[in-house]
Amino acid sequence: MRVSLFIPCLTDQFFPRVGINLYKILKKAGAIVDYPSEQTCCGQPAFNSGYHEEAIELAQRFLQVFRSSEYIVSPSGSCTSMVKMFYPEILEDLGLKETLHDVTRKTYEFSDFLVNVMGVTDLGVYFPHRVTYHDACHLLRELQVKQAPRDLIRKVRGIELVEMEQSENCCGFGGTFSVKYPEISTAMAEDKAASIAQTGAEYVVANDSSCLMQIGGCLSRKDLAAKPLHLADLLGESL
Amino acid sequence: MNLTPKLFKTYAKRNLNNPRLRKTYRFATHHALANRLQVVGEVPEWEALRERAHCIKEEAIDHLDYYLEKLEVSVTGNGGKVFWARDGKEASDYILSIARRIRARTVVKSKSMTTEEIGLSHTLEENQLEPVETDLGEYIIQLAHEWPSHITAPALHKTRGEIGELFAEKLGIPYTDVPEELCEVARKILRSKFLAAEIGISGVNFALADTGTIVIVENEGNARLSTTLPKVHIAVMGLEKVIPSFVDLPVFLRLLARSSTGQKQTSYVSLISSPRKPGEVDGPEEFHLVILDNGRTELLKDPKVRESLFCIRCGACLNTCPIYQRVGGHSYGSVYSGPIGAVITPLFQGLEVAKDLPYASSLCGACSGICPVKIDIHHMLLYLRKQLVDQKGTPWQERLAMKLYLAGMKDSTLYRLGSRALRIALKLSGKQSKPLTVPGWTETRDFPPLAVKSFKTMWKELQREAEL
Amino acid sequence: MAGSRTEILGKIRLALTNPRAEHHHGHESVTSDLKQLFASVWSRDGLVEKFQREFEAVSGEFTLCDSEAAALAALRKIIVSSNAQRVAVSLHAICSWLKVAERLQTELPNVQFLTEAIDSENSFERARLKDALEKAPLSVTGCEYLLAESGTIVNTAGSQASRQISLLPSIHVALATPDQIFPNMADLFLGLQRKHGTNLPGSALTFITGPSRTADIEKVLIKGVHGPTRLLVVMLSA
Predict the structure, then answer these.
(1) Rounded to two decimals, what is the model's pTM?
(2) Phi, psi values for residue B449, rounded to 5°
(3) Looking at this predicted complex, what is its ipTM?
């Protein structure tokens, strides 16, 4: 199985270890991993703000960059949604139906890919800590991925997974929403932080660096104990 | 109270910083959601029902002219009258002409968002009529001269203490904040109005085209009273409320109350097909159905937003929206608030007037997930953002930023150079590995530092190592 | 107005020449089969128990009687304990057949029983009836159907009963028999369609699920806002 890494711009610039850990995880699971280095951004920031022209250009570029990939795997639910759910919408008029269909079919968020395509849940990881899991909105509602991350977490030896109240509530990031409506965004993050604190978890795990940036930014500002942890870091750091 | 969507940011900020209001909204919405969860959990066919309801609405809207004409034939065949109103003024003028003809003085109204939309009560007052809101929540906000703050619970934003003060002040009764006592006061006052009124005005939840029936869903009994006792019953419906058939109704009734108030069924559902028939000892002598456009045909034009006309006004999207929960209904500056309000208000009033609304969303999608007729609400918000950009309605700074972003992203050499330049700049200013300051973010949350090496750099190094 | 009608319909037709965009997010195949959509509540087993359970869950008061005498005794008990001095009785067949007004009048001479037997086409008499019902704190009616899924009573406005008789008094008692119970609303509507086609009986069909209620003040549930405060069913099983 050949897998191409799709590393979001946010991950590339702020959380590169997530990408490295994803690479290690996929290798451990038995895939041959490559990274098309010409990739930059899937175009989601433009699309989410209504700038379709810019998004279309970047989408077409994405199709080019990943044209010879067998599978395209990303550590971000929101970026994966952009490709799978929204590329068909913005590119439908451009006569790219076949390439488009191919790419959307091949693109996966990594926990979904590991569990449901590779059939792997146990990577032999040991992490004796209490963690809780945040359901990122795009991953949950656009991609309908809820169990796969939990399946992976539960197989970690020594781990204690505690579900928080309303894990499905939005963390308040929402892209530019986080700075266009900072008070509302922060209020949402604070409620999420409170739910996390209530579990007594040492880590809050999620599959989206943007959520973790928002939640983590709030937890640290409020001096709360829990630390943000990307699922790829949880599973891949010790590999 | 006179609100406008233009001031969403102002209203939202004010409400966010009002702890009492925050607490009231939080309690009310969480309560509604908990009740809903319980009754929806009892229905194994829930997803199939949503799907079916969506398809029924799709059929109705896709053939709207056909079903409205069929409805008209059925209603008039049953002895009712149908009036087509292009806008609020035509609807109000028609109602006033009836009032003049029968020399009416008092009009009892049951809860109707459509009549709120056209400001009907205000118009009736200006024409020397006494319009009395009879739904308790509507009665409260009528006394307070306020707008509804929720689609199904108009006085959701008020505490019992505030209602107590309001009643004491406006009705001259001794202060009490005991809900049962306040309710009893309203019951007595309003009962006399029901008995005296010459006209009863209601909304319409569903209009059944084949039987010529309007359906009114309520809990208090005020709609039954308003549509039974007065001589004339006028029902005002948005033209999107028609559904093809009588046998479509059970699907909606199994979804509506559960989504709205967490009940299996509301206390009363009235199916009214005609005025009093010979042999019946009560019922209005005249039944008028006002079919209102007021911008709906504009919405119909664009296939991408046509689905917003499926809305059955349950209010579930409001209850689940993290933005609505925190800023409250009045922030939207429209009688339609929450996610569905953020879609239809710009469509009814124009994007220029309501340009903040599509962006007041984190696009979490909870609204679309909860909608009983599966309206893709959050994707419509995204679409409205596109509309605004296409209309050049966004700030020039943002447009410029997007152009720069595109330039940086479509050329990987430029991207890499930019990435390196940024790191060199940070290193030189001694800020390497330090958390960045981001206006709009770092006032309330910490922001991570830029990674010393980007993933691209780390990957290159990894490849070189592997080769050695 | 003809102008408005033409204009609105014209606008609709023009708008609909623009077909709907294909939905990318996929709607699974849909059934229009009501039986499937109501499968979990389609069974006709234990309808009386189901109805009672749901009816009581919405604060309805249920009494099951196995004889005419027991039913009349139950009615008498309800009237006496409510201290109602006036009772309205509908012209439903079950009320007539049980001779509710006559028998109870004999047993309760101090209570005034009134019926809706007036000249329906005389507006003056209709107005008087309305006033009389407004002053009656309790009414006894039959009903057309019941729904087990939600504990609902269904009344038709017609020659057997007015709309207001189950609305103006603060206590409403409905007499019913088990054969009137439908398991769910879809089943009932299909039956009504078979029986009446598109000509629904009476000017209004009312679905009553428990007493009148509101939660408009801080979500506190209050019963008896504008409609009845108490709703009772006396079911005659024999």
Answers:
(1) 0.95
(2) -80, 160
(3) 0.96
